[in-house]
Structure formats: C-alpha cells, structure tokens
Write a structure and sequence with these properties.
By secondary structure, this protein is of the alpha/beta class. The chain contains 13 helices and 8 strands. The strands form 2 sheets. It has a 6-stranded parallel β-sheet with strand order 4-3-8-7-5-6, with helices on both faces. A two-stranded antiparallel sheet has the order 1-2. Helix 8 links the parallel strand 7 and strand 8. Helix 1 crosses helix 5. The chain is globular, with a radius of gyration of 17 Å.
Amino acid sequence: MRTDVLGVKFDQVTPEEALAQARALVADGGFHYAVTPNPEFILEAEKNEPFARALDGADIVLPDGVGVLYAAKILGRPLKARVTGMAFACGLLGWMAEQDIPLFLLGAKPGVAARAAERMVQDYPGLRVCGTQDGYFQDDAPVVEEIRASGAQVVFVCLGAPKQELWMVQHGAATGARLMVGLGGCLDVFAGDVQRAPAAMQKMGLEWLYRLVKQPKRAGRMARLPLVLLQACGARLRGR
C-alpha cells in the first residue's frame, strides 16, 4: 500500500519491512529498483515528468527525509516511519555479506567508490564487492556491460537525482542486476569523505541542520524545503 504525498507515492513500511521487501525482490529474479525520495525529489517531480514516472514505477519507494514525514502528517495521512537511504543500504550490506550476494558500486567522484568498497568490506566481513565505477562516464554502454560482466545482483547507484533514477529505468534491466538502489551521496559517506550527523541528531531528524553547518553552500537548497510543508498545508486546506 502506498501513500500519496504531493504527487509522490510512498510505501507504508518500517525499516525492517523495507529490507524484507528488498530481499524478496532479489530472490524473485528479474530487474527491480528502489528509490529514496526526500522533499527535494517532490519539488523536482512536480516539473520533471520523466522523473515523476521513474519514482512512480519503482518497486520500493522509501521516505528519506523528515520533511516527507511532516508533509504526510499535515495531509492527514501519516507514514509508518522514516527509512533513510543510508540505513536501508547498511541493512542490505549486512544481509548481502551473510548471503554472499555480489554488489556493484556506481557513482561519485573518481576513486570514491573504490574507497567505499574497501571500507564496506572491512565493516561487513564476507561482503563481496564485484566492481566499482565512478559517475563521470560519458558512454552508458560500457558501464552497462561492466556491471553485467561482474555478475552483480545488487547495484548501489549514486549519480544524484534525477539522473540516477532515470539511469536505472533506462539501463537497469540490461545490466542483469536484480535490484538497483538510488542512493545519492551515500558513497561519499561510506568512503569516509563525508561524516554523518551524530546519532542523536539523526534520531531527532536534524541531519539537514548538521549538513547545513558542515556545508553552508547547501543553504540555497535547504531554503526550498519549507515549500513542501507549505504545499502540504495548502493541499490540506483545499481538501486534497
């Protein structure tokens, strides 16, 4: 069951249920993909029809961003829980390490994916990273073939939205992977180049504030996020 939040439909799942769903999709065979929309995704989807279709067509749509939860509450249709892309990815890593499921890392600046792979293997003994590729490629075909040749069953796609979602839709099935997950800047975190907010701030939903303090240049992007809450208030008043 999905809940509409300003045009983007989110799965009503807990973090545990989301991981169970992902495991079932990998076992099912065929190609599937997961997306992790935050408030910025909602604003982009309003003006980007292909992106909106990509979000709507995903097998898993997780609410990544406390603003999504607040907007859902304002609309009178609260979501079960926030499921961040990072937490979802970490849960998948533990499971893949146990089950020997090969992972491919795609995205970020040159060298970042390789460093992320090294740290992942250290943190999750038994994990098999079968390949990496930075996000600065010009031709899609060689990347698709590289993933296919690697035998990856799961691919973390970290190209940034909306590029990563459109890439998964267009090329995912040709790679032979069973599950792709759009994860934005997660490889930078796994590589140790970007630090996550302290656990207390994560629990309070203040990761956005931590990132803003660490990266003041994000202020322009952050200033747009209250628009989602204002739109939710307007939709509620109009009875939508």
